[in-house]
């Protein structure tokens, strides 16, 4: 995997360098598009040696894209938003299992790109931008098969997508394309509520656990198949794969105070984790 990542980053950076040097495009039109539609995905989250979540997410995604040439080297501006809901099944050798834990995810992204036109009907667009992803996992009040109490978790990722998009127009109103992307992870925050079995005999805690994460990366790949269904819109079919690899977090401490005012400090870390999501988006593009 590290060798594949290095090659991917190298190819993307080389293509972006070429993009800003070779700006002799054959294309002079300006155009914008908006698409919206449902998406469905299978998600897997693992903390190797500790636990894993697996489930299905469904929701709605939308994007706006502008292409042109009158902003200097910027030939594409794109904004994306996606909201997903679903449930996952939790399993741990130590804590047992809990089924049907409610999950929700929202992700927003904004990218700038440069259009390289090698032929009149083919577009190659290196791009870069900013993204934010929040995933919530709500098992507070649920009990595992071995009696462990669930708790709420919220994962927040901030990252910079760096990628390349390719699109080719075909005869008969069809077009095909795809994207390949590396996500530079620069900050994350994991907020974990206090399990109720820690609050025994009237004890109180100072706060929730808040663990900072600053090392990791993400990868994305997708295909994009379009068919013109009228003069005003296209039907879009887009299967995709997304992957995150996040290192162990910094430690977080809370103070536990019992009814006799005795205190103790509890320190935890968020283990290294892997997330894999594959799914499909179906949308109408205007």
- Taken together, the total number of domains comes to 1
The portion of residues assigned to helices is under 10%
Structural class: mainly beta
CATH level 1 class label: Mainly Beta
The mean pLDDT is: 85
What's the gyration radius in Å? 22 Å
Main sheet strand line-up: 1-2-3-4-6-7-8-11-12-15
The main sheet comes to: 10 strands, antiparallel, barrel
Order of helices and strands: HEEEEEEEEEEEEEEE
Helical run tally: 1
Ranges where pLDDT stays below 50 over 5 or more residues in a row are: 4-10, 12-28
Quick one: how many beta strands?
15
Strand-residue proportion: over 45%
The CATH architecture is Beta Barrel
Could you characterize the architecture of this molecule?
This protein is mainly beta and 286 residues long. It has a single domain, classed as Lipocalin (Beta Barrel), CATH 2.40.128. The protein has one helix at 2-21, and strands at 31-47, 51-71, 74-92, 96-113, 116-119, 122-138, 152-169, 174-192, 204-205, 209-213, 216-228, 234-246, 252-257, 263-268, 273-285. A hairpin with a 3-residue loop joins strand 3 and strand 4. The longest helix has 20 residues, at 2-21. The radius of gyration is 22 Å and the shape is elongated. It starts with a helix and ends with a strand. 23% of the residues are buried. The model is unreliable at 4-10 and 12-28 (pLDDT under 50).
């Amino acid at each position: 995997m590290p060798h594949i990542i290095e090659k991917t980053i190298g190819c993307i950076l080389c293509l972006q360098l070429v993009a800003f040097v070779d700006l002799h495009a054959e294309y002079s039109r300006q155009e914008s598009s908006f698409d919206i539609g449902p998406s469905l995905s299978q998600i897997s989250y693992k903390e190797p040696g500790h636990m894993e979540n697996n489930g299905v997410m469904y929701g709605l995604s939308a994007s706006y894209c502008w292409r042109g040439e009158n902003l200097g080297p910027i030939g594409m501006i794109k904004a994306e938003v996606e909201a997903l809901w679903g449930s996952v099944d939790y399993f741990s050798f130590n804590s047992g299992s809990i089924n049907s834990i409610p999950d929700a995810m929202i992700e927003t992204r904004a990218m700038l790109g440069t259009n390289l036109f090698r032929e009149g009907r083919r577009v190659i667009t290196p791009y870069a931008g900013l993204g934010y992803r929040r995933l919530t996992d709500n098992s507070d009040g649920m009990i595992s098969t071995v009696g462990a109490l669930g708790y709420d978790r919220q994962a927040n990722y901030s990252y910079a997508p760096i990628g390349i998009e390719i699109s080719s127009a075909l005869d008969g109103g069809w077009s095909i394309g795809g994207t390949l992307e590396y996500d530079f992870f620069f900050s994350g925050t994991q907020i974990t509520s206090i399990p109720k079995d820690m609050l025994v005999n009237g004890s109180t805690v100072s706060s929730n656990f808040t663990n900072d994460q600053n090392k990791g990366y993400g990868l994305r790949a997708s295909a994009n198949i379009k068919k013109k269904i009228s003069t005003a819109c296209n039907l879009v079919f887009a299967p995709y794969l997304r992957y995150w690899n996040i290192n162990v977090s910094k430690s977080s401490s809370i103070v536990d105070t019992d009814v006799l005012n005795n205190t103790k400090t509890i320190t935890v870390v968020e283990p290294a984790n892997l997330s894999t999501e594959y799914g499909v988006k179906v949308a109408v593009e205007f």
